[in-house]
TrEMBL record:
It comes from the Bacteria. The lineage of its organism: Bacteria, Pseudomonadati, Pseudomonadota, Gammaproteobacteria, Chromatiales. Keywords: Hydrolase. It comes from Caldichromatium japonicum. One of its GO terms (molecular function) is hydrolase activity. This is Alpha/beta hydrolase.
Length: 254
């Protein structure tokens, strides 16, 4: 890579799960650092932008994790299998950055979808990608990353499509289903103004998902009747996606 902040801010700690052929670097968002991973030509006219899930914000039900990063980052593995130019923008305080400036446990617990998180991610995306007039961005998020993808779509004019996988798009209903206290510091897509109809929404539901069952999405679907919902057979919240990802992308026209 030969341009912008991605070239100049390397040197951060490696992540063991980084797939072969994927580059990584550290960039600045809005008040936070972000680890980014990419492959392909990010100056292409269409780029897929991935967002990882919530990882491990808690250990059990009472102890906050010191580092929320996932042991096995699904969105990163999906990005590595995507044949299109693609980048994953790490969330604030994730990927070994839990002790970096500005980070507190609130940002991966009750504030995991907060204004601070969304604003910094939006800034990081703009910093990470080279200027390209007319570029089209496809936001792709797994689980809580899907929540962030929808929230980011309001802020990035280049977004044409939002794809979510097993995403808890009604945050309040999901928290109630899981027996969690309300995420009072977080934004909830089900309470936001509707996205412009020009943004295509593709929400993929895992057939065997016990963490985010389809029943928790009812209020979101009333809010967005134009959203396309598709059940993916043979999947649960994490399993069954990686092997089929290129096939799923092709079926979605992506």
């Amino acid at each position: 890579m030969s341009y912008g902040l991605l070239a100049g801010l390397g040197g951060c700690a490696s992540v063991p799960e980084t797939p072969p052929g994927v580059g990584s670097a550290l960039i600045e968002g809005l008040g936070f650092q972000h680890k980014v991973f990419w492959h392909g030509d990010l100056a292409a006219p269409r780029v897929h932008v991935y967002l990882e899930g919530d990882g491990r914000p808690w250990i059990g039900r009472t102890q906050i994790a010191a580092d929320p990063g996932p042991f096995s980052p699904l969105a990163l593995r999906l990005m590595a299998r995507d044949p299109n130019p693609a980048i994953l923008i790490g969330r604030p305080c994730y990927h070994g950055l839990a002790r970096s400036p500005g980070c507190t446990p609130w940002l991966w617990t009750h504030g995991r979808y907060s204004e601070q998180v969304v604003a910094s991610l939006a800034q990081a995306i703009q910093q990470a990608l080279p200027p390209q007039p007319g570029r089209e961005l496809i936001l792709i998020g797994h689980s809580g990353g899907g929540v962030l993808a929808v929230l980011l779509a309001y802020r990035l004019p280049e977004v044409s499509t939002v794809v979510t996988l097993a995403a808890n798009l009604d945050v309040a209903a999901w928290a109630k289903h899981r027996g969690y206290s309300p995420l009072s510091g977080s934004l909830d897509p089900s309470n936001q103004p509707p996205l412009p109809p020009t943004i295509r929404q593709l929400h993929l539901i895992a057939e065997q998902d016990q963490e985010v069952p389809a029943s928790t999405l009812a209020r979101y679907l009333v809010h967005y009747p134009q959203a396309h919902i598709q059940m993916i057979a043979g999947t649960d919240h994490r399993r069954g996606w990686i092997e089929r990802w290129p096939e799923i992308l092709q079926a979605l026209g992506l």
